Amino acid sequence: MMVNKLKYIVVLLMVFEVAAFCQNYTQYVNPFIGTTNFGTTNPGAIVPQAMVSVVPFNVTGSDLNKWDKDARWWSTPYSWDNQFLTGFSHVNLSGVGCPDLGVIMVMPTTGTVDANLKHYGSIMSGQRAEPGYYTCKLEKYNVKAEVTSTKRTGLSKFTFPKGESNIIIDLGNSLTNESGAYVKVVSDREVEGWRMTGNFCYHGNSERPVYFVARFNKPATSFGAFKKMPAMMGAEKDWSASSGKFKYYTQFLHPLAGDSIGAYFSFDTDAGESVMVQVGISYVSIANARQNLEYESNGFSFEKTRNEAREEWNNVLSKVRVEGGTEDQKTVFYTALYHMNIHPNIINDVNGQYPMMESYGIGEVKDRDRYTVFSLWDTYRNFHPLMSLLYPEKQLDMVRSMVDMYKEGGWLPKWELNSKETYTMNGDPSFPVITDTYLRGLTDFDVQTAYEAMLKSATTPQKDNKIRTNNDFYLQKGYVPFTEDYDNSVSIALELYLADWNLGVLANKLGYRKEGKRFISQSKGYKNYFDKKTFKMLRPKKADGTFIADFDPLQGQNFEPVHGFHEGTAWQYTFGVPHDINGLIKLNGGGKQFAKKLQDIFDHQLFDMANEPDMHYPFLFNYVKGQEWRAQKEVQRLLDTYFKNEPGGIPGNDDCGTMSAWVAYSMMGFYPVCPGDMNYTITKPVFDKVTIELDARFYADSTFQIIKHSGADKEYIKSIRWNGQAVKSFFIHHDRVVNGGKLEIHMGEKE
Amino acid sequence: MMVNKLKYIVVLLMVFEVAAFCQNYTQYVNPFIGTTNFGTTNPGAIVPQAMVSVVPFNVTGSDLNKWDKDARWWSTPYSWDNQFLTGFSHVNLSGVGCPDLGVIMVMPTTGTVDANLKHYGSIMSGQRAEPGYYTCKLEKYNVKAEVTSTKRTGLSKFTFPKGESNIIIDLGNSLTNESGAYVKVVSDREVEGWRMTGNFCYHGNSERPVYFVARFNKPATSFGAFKKMPAMMGAEKDWSASSGKFKYYTQFLHPLAGDSIGAYFSFDTDAGESVMVQVGISYVSIANARQNLEYESNGFSFEKTRNEAREEWNNVLSKVRVEGGTEDQKTVFYTALYHMNIHPNIINDVNGQYPMMESYGIGEVKDRDRYTVFSLWDTYRNFHPLMSLLYPEKQLDMVRSMVDMYKEGGWLPKWELNSKETYTMNGDPSFPVITDTYLRGLTDFDVQTAYEAMLKSATTPQKDNKIRTNNDFYLQKGYVPFTEDYDNSVSIALELYLADWNLGVLANKLGYRKEGKRFISQSKGYKNYFDKKTFKMLRPKKADGTFIADFDPLQGQNFEPVHGFHEGTAWQYTFGVPHDINGLIKLNGGGKQFAKKLQDIFDHQLFDMANEPDMHYPFLFNYVKGQEWRAQKEVQRLLDTYFKNEPGGIPGNDDCGTMSAWVAYSMMGFYPVCPGDMNYTITKPVFDKVTIELDARFYADSTFQIIKHSGADKEYIKSIRWNGQAVKSFFIHHDRVVNGGKLEIHMGEKE
């Protein structure tokens, strides 16, 4: 009996594997989406949550490029609008608004080695990208470049013409505005070193070396290191051949260090001969980078690595199977899932080691991953709830990582980058992530410590508080006072209210009733800002309790400075209380007034799809009986207008998958308006059928399906059924979803 | 009996030690001699043949300085003429004409840390120096700086006022024109790293990192690293606080690398509180630098280290005891011995490891030292013969090092710097050193391999010959032809003749008669250049056998370009055949003509005391019977004119002790005109009595004494006696000298 059963399981697994293989969801990923229009994604080769991506770097060195990384605020190693390539960078951020990383650059050239990127850069053509693979042609050299990757290594294959062919590793060229590197050629086929990164958002605190070992698939005929030499003066300049120029250190095996250095490996190639280089990365040490390289190497089998990358992606993408919709819509959807699986990314080496938070110690994880790149002000809103639903194991590891950061550094993360707190954006955005995850049933993390960490952040006076630097007045009076022109007082306070509400919810859940009451009460402080008399909006308030005089709700459009708000207008924050929409409705004079004001925002172009504070607005219509059709209409309009299968198909920074999570939810037809609130609100799905494969280790061994029954001109939801039973509300609880079942949505005319 | 004898020896040793201690020869060393007038020595703290010296670095950063290292060709970290100090460098060259090293800079400051040397530099005052110790006051900070050293470490003691006091380790500031460094703060009292050196003579091939570990005698209250950030452009510059400025990385324990970086340690000091830092150096690794530091540390006992340094010097200086002469003359003499014991210096770590020649391998010596810094074109002339006489063990280790360099790198050294061949100057200058050392009785080295190496260099065709790049025509026709304006053809050939003569002498000594004959015959090729018809001088000759037309014997004064000669005029080379002075006399028409021409050179200021090629000229009068008084007169005049107890007291580069060896010999009253020729020629001693302690392990257990019997106006040698017996000749053989005895010189009137 036993044997037979096992056999049966094996057969089933095989069937499943075949099915998964046959259904190739990676065909619906267009890695070029978001690569212009400030989406700041890139088409580089990457596997899910990888430490390494191999990204064509084309934002420097030539007027042929539309955008130059040094000519303006610039945060991505790649732009669709550019065409001058200066290599492939191995450590990159995707979809963020601040520059960092973009280092360990590999560039193929031919002829005499020239380390000046303005000289060695090339026009690129014939770009193609798919999950885990990117290729282009370098016109200057007639070289075909192909790159693929593993979690901790990048593998590049360069097909050269006949002659002298080179691979340059340029540690000067970078996206980060930090500089300084170390390089040591180890042999004729290996080089090691590190490159400093940091200066995130041009303001620092993320400084850290990234270690690498690069190995070639064949020995070089010659090799060396290079360094840009400082310019000398007068007569001295005349004696020194290399003053202000690159100096080449041929067959040099000593270490080299400097601001602009690198190494080169040259090969005598036949026509069409390929040379490969695999680069292992570590944030801990060169030794770990070498171990990562060796562990994740396929012995320079490029196709095997590429196929494995594709399969990894297909596994991730196939957790949601959509039917119906156009090819473009499927592509927008699966590309959103793709972008959601880039950050946070692992930072632990294959041996489990990682750099500890705000420390110089080395931590070690076992049987799980340590995550980094937490853009929490963005991602708490929708990204983590969707990770919890689709990839609960990853989400759990992310929360475990956050709690470990507190244990190591004393504070929960805010905008964590490579185990450093960058103090970017505001509020206390780890709270909603922790509470939301716990409430979704993912409880297998040290919640008591998490709660202790939240309490500490919420209650520590501001002079000792690394996260809440406005805590004293806030704790006393319940709001953050406007203290100087263009401060972010209201925005900060709104973040704190939501955080405190989540803290209260978690406290209640853990049985700490007193604290639960206190923080939920505290979360209502937003009412302090409501200007009942004049504007009927949230309005900056001074310490003396009076509103600021020169209030202009339109101030702040297009990133211009604004009193009291951060990256947006008062309009984009005035409904920024997702944890108390009903309170907000009451303040606004009831549902009708509320819905009218909301519609005005959309009608008068006061809504900003390109940033996070108002991204829940279209779903707020669902809180007013009879107005739900407006949500369906606006969501569809926003999807159609801003999210497209084209390079400009994300309206602003993807923000580590936050925009993508909005798209994915919206296209599936539901949305978690408030993290910590387990009710999803329902809107019209783009697809006829959506099947979410629930992870049986955490949820029911089942699927959650959304089925749209529709026809021509039937644009609005007429009725909703859950497992065959009619549902009155436009909300469905998470517990239902993860127990599996069918959500049937019947479309019809608007009444 | 046995016991009693032993007791007797112990008592004797104690007496000797007391005597040596009582007679403090270091009082006659003035480390400021040679620190201006291009002597290029420095007053830094150093022990004999040390890897490390701690040198006040005052050649950059301010217009207060007369000389700036970057404004002209400059080769010394210190100038007596300057007054703006920017730290103490730990690895330095002394008395050379090309810049390199001058790195690992330690500087005390007070107040807020500022890493810009133009800001942190200070006027220095109250300089005092003695062997192994240097002190000055930093006016800007009211800080007293004192430095001392061991073979492989420098120990600095800074006495601060009350307040915030800092010690900056600046790896940007340097004498070398190479750049790039790595630094890692290890703890609040230790920092490690390395600094690239090289670009010797502005032309490279000596690139090598110098590793260090610095340790403080107390923990810092704060510390960090810093880096000069590249200048950014436009708007980007506005966002970045550190664009084009120094960025400070506080309490930073990651490694940092770059062109201009360093570390700082800050202390809260009481008034008059001292902070000490000891810096260990290695050319192999940071680990070895740490081991050197630990092994040579006295637990921050500054006085103990200083006393040990003084005693080491006294041991070295007391090998020659002079009586009579003025205090200034004694000072000039002992300072010359002091300068002779700086280079060549050891490069092996305490564990015996050293970087192998022209290789990336690590060698290891046991029970002996590995030497580096071989300025052989200079030092073969007189420095090594005097080392053989006074310090035979060191000289043997130097020759052993040279032979090992051949074994490691395939060629004997020419101008070797830190195990790299810099290819500076010309000829084959290791030959005379090897032959001379062997003939002086120091035979305990691998002479067969040395001979093999010499044969290889002498006979390998030029395309495969790293040292003799003019070998083909030379081997065929016996001279180096003039091929282009301002070539060094005659100078090169003269070096080769002397080298080949030495090879011939060694071959004969080893029993290789055929080769002996061949190379001694080859050494006579200088006659090719003798222009019998017109100038009666050595004159550049073309490949077709004709002399060059536009020959001007005065061309080349003051380093102006000259046809056929290197760093000098034809006059300064025309007697450049020390191995065949009799042949030269014959060519010149006999002794009378020869002496007249020689006298003309001195009378018409054609002689150059500041460079090596003609430094044997004054002694050549001794080769003409009856003209010896001219040698005595000219040597005395040169000593009196050019060598003084003052900063300008060396007429040009000391050239790693070559000028100093000339002074020491001349003042003692004898000189080795030709290396490889064991006859010293005799001239008038400056002192009444000179006693050379012979090293009983190599020579007689005895002394060699020179006693001058003189009185008022008795300026010329009247007669000479050796061990009481009258000597007719003005020459004395080395074998006599090292067997011990008395050379009595009776002075009188000129006849």
The chain pair with the largest interface is: A-B, 41 and 41 residues
* pLDDT averaged residue by residue of chain A: 95
Give the % helix of chain A: 25-40%
Task: Give the neighbour order of strands across the main sheet of chain A.
Answer: 3-6-7-8-9-18-13-12-11-16
Total number of helical segments of chain A? 19
What is the CATH class of the largest domain in chain A?
Alpha Beta
| Shape call of chain A | globular
Low-confidence stretches of chain A: 1-21
CATH architecture of the largest domain in chain A: 2-Layer Sandwich
SSE class of chain A:
alpha+beta
CATH fold-level label of the largest domain in chain A:
GH92 mannosidase fold
Q: Whole-Å distance between the termini of chain A?
A: 60 Å
Main pleated sheet of chain A:
10 strands, antiparallel
Within CATH, the superfamily of the largest domain in chain A carries the name GH92 mannosidase domain
Please describe the topology of this protein:
Two copies of one chain form a homodimer.
Chain A (H helix, E strand, L loop, with lengths): L1 H21 L22 E2 L6 E4 L27 E2 L2 E4 L11 E8 L6 H4 L1 E9 L2 E6 L4 E7 L3 E8 L2 E8 L10 E7 L2 E8 L10 E9 L5 E7 L5 H6 L6 E5 L5 E3 L2 E9 L3 E10 L3 H10 L6 H16 L2 E4 L3 H14 L4 E2 L6 E3 L6 E3 L6 E2 L1 E2 H4 L3 H8 L1 H18 L5 E3 L2 E2 L8 H10 L7 H13 L11 H7 L11 H22 L2 H10 L7 E2 L5 E2 L42 H7 L3 H13 L24 H15 L15 H11 L1 E2 L7 E4 L6 E5 L9 E7 L6 E7 L2 E3 L3 E3 H6 L1 E8 L3
Parallel strand pairs in A: 32-36
Antiparallel strand pairs in A: 1-2, 2-4, 3-6, 4-5, 5-10, 6-7, 7-8, 8-9, 9-18, 10-17, 11-12, 11-16, 12-13, 13-18, 14-15, 14-17, 19-31, 20-23, 21-22, 24-25, 25-26, 27-28, 29-30, 30-35, 31-32, 33-34, 33-36
Helix pairs in contact in A: 6-18, 8-9, 9-10, 9-11, 10-13, 11-13, 13-14
Pfam family, one (chains A, B): Glyco_hydro_92N
Keywords (chains A, B): Calcium, Signal
GO cellular component, one term (chains A, B): cytosol
